[in-house]
From TrEMBL:
One Pfam family, short name: DUF6057
UniProt entry tagged with the keyword tRNA processing: no
InterPro entries found in the cross-reference section: DUF6057 (IPR045692)
Record's protein name: Transmembrane protein
Protein keywords: Membrane, Transmembrane, Transmembrane helix
Organism for this UniProt entry: Bacteroides helcogenes (strain ATCC 35417 / DSM 20613 / JCM 6297 / CCUG 15421 / P 36-108)
Length: 471
């Protein structure tokens, strides 16, 4: 009996741990960030207002330990171990035949099939509670039954079922979860989200290629944010399948996922008031009315803004978390993540007007930021507003300022068809002018020439202006 139990544990636990630790690490990160726990009496009273809420309370307590990747993997493995041992106990008491204990892997595989979608751990805690209670009751009711009968034989008691079938059941269940399309897509989204939080922009651009961005509006926004942060927005934006200036962020969409992205977007622009706004919105839409991810963002933004009294209040709240009392991560100084002279000097409300209006108002506030300039100018190009682009460009760039980004050059060449003096004021290369003439030749040519346009100029501003319709 002990050998069978040891075999079951050594088979299931390492596999489940490796799957969580290696295959779904970003799901662990997301689960911790979306949870919140505090020992404050009001939080406890609110969470335990209904009899069944103790599972939610226990779930958010355990989710604190998902702060560590290994901690999350170990807790998920512990759930599987409890389900497995409880099932073994029930079968052992009822069947009195250790060779039939392989049947315990049926509920284990069933449990694993839903474990990856259990973001609050309520399902996992419920399973463990029911099975442990059932195991205790079965053990009490079968105390007076006879001893084991190891000589019992049968097809279902063969070594094949005792040892090989558990391996096959576990392998099948794990394979199904690892290859499940929804689980893979969720892990990909969490991974990109994690990279954005860590400001790993190059990793995002390697993952979200132009081909991938054209297929996913979710990933497109992260790719555009990464292009902006790496200074390549005006060089590659049209390669990623943009359709509207609102592609840069989520405009007036009140859902937690969108607020989380907007937190990253405004943090990159250095607008800490908007970071706090969207962090608070994302927090109140979390299952517990606040989450650790939003708390960390709010605390970091208030520290940069110098709001010491507000920061002290949030620090007091998060310190009541039994884990963050010791594990509270250091928050960077105001200058650590701020480049290009970003400053919090605008006092108007962001997001109430269209994207281009907000970027123009930021420029009017003398926010000397390359990122804002690129968002405004690229947004005008996406809108195909050459007249407005030329006016704004003239206010931002000085004549003969040096080499211009690719799409600005292409737009100025188009503007030169109406304002010939443009090419004298700005450093537009002769090669770009010659290239535009070749583009016009193909545009006015045969159908074969027009098909060649997409091959040679698909990622150009000219192709977007003359060959694509705004969505």
């Amino acid at each position: 009996m002990k050998k069978i139990l040891l075999f079951h544990l050594l088979l299931a636990c390492p596999v489940v741990f490796v799957v969580w630790y290696v295959v779904f690490p970003n799901t662990i990160w997301f689960m911790e960030g979306n949870a919140f726990f505090s020992t404050a009496p009001d939080f406890t009273a609110l969470q335990l207002s209904l009899p069944a809420d103790w599972m939610k309370y226990a779930g958010v307590y355990l989710l604190q330990f998902f702060y560590f990747r290994m901690g999350g993997a170990l807790i998920q493995t512990l759930f599987v171990a409890i389900v497995l041992l409880s099932s073994d106990c029930v079968l052992a008491c009822l069947l009195r035949n250790k060779r039939l204990l392989w049947l315990s892997f049926i509920p284990v595989v069933w449990f694993i099939s839903g474990q990856f979608a259990d973001m609050t751990l309520v399902r996992s805690i419920g399973w463990c509670t029911v099975l442990v209670t059932l195991a205790v009751l079965v053990w009490l009711f079968t105390l007076k039954r006879g001893k084991w009968n190891p000589s019992e034989r049968g097809f279902l008691c063969s070594p094949f079922f005792s040892y090989l079938v558990p391996c096959l059941l576990l392998a099948g269940g794990i394979f199904y979860q690892v290859t499940d399309k929804e689980q893979k897509e969720a892990e990909e989204i969490f991974r990109i989200d994690h990279w954005a939080d860590d400001k790993n922009w190059n990793a995002i651009l390697q993952e979200v290629t132009p081909e991938v961005a054209r297929q996913s509006q979710l990933k497109l926004r992260w790719a555009l944010l990464a292009l902006s942060e790496t200074g390549r927005l005006a060089e590659k934006v049209f390669a990623y399948g943009v359709s509207d200036p609102s592609c840069f962020y989520y405009e007036r969409q009140d859902q937690q996922f969108y607020h989380c992205f907007n937190m990253q977007f405004y943090d990159a622009l250095g607008l800490d008031n908007e970071v706090i706004h969207h962090a608070f919105q994302a927090g109140i839409e979390a299952p517990n009315g606040m989450n650790f991810r939003s708390m960390r963002r709010i605390m970091a933004a208030n520290r940069r803004l110098g709001n010491d009294r507000i920061l002290a209040k949030y620090t007091s709240v998060i310190s009541r978390s039994s884990c963050y009392n010791r594990w509270k991560e250091p928050i960077s100084e105001p200058t650590a993540d701020r480049a290009d002279g970003d400053q919090n000097i605008c006092s108007f409300f962001i997001g109430a007007r269209p994207f281009l209006s907000d970027m123009a108002r930021l420029m009017d506030c003398h926010l000397d930021s390359r990122k804002v300039r690129d968002y405004l100018l690229c947004g005008l190009l996406i809108s195909k507003d050459i007249e407005k682009f030329y006016q704004v460009f003239g206010m931002i760039y000085q004549p003969s300022q040096g080499q211009l980004p690719r799409y600005y050059e292409e737009a100025l060449v188009v503007a030169a068809t109406k304002y010939p003096d443009v090419l004298q004021y700005y450093a537009v290369s002769r090669e770009k002018v010659t290239e535009f003439k070749a583009f016009q030749t193909l545009l006015n040519g045969s159908m074969a020439d027009k098909r060649m346009l997409e091959v040679k100029y698909r990622d150009s501003f000219w192709f977007w202006l003359y060959c694509m319709q705004k969505v």
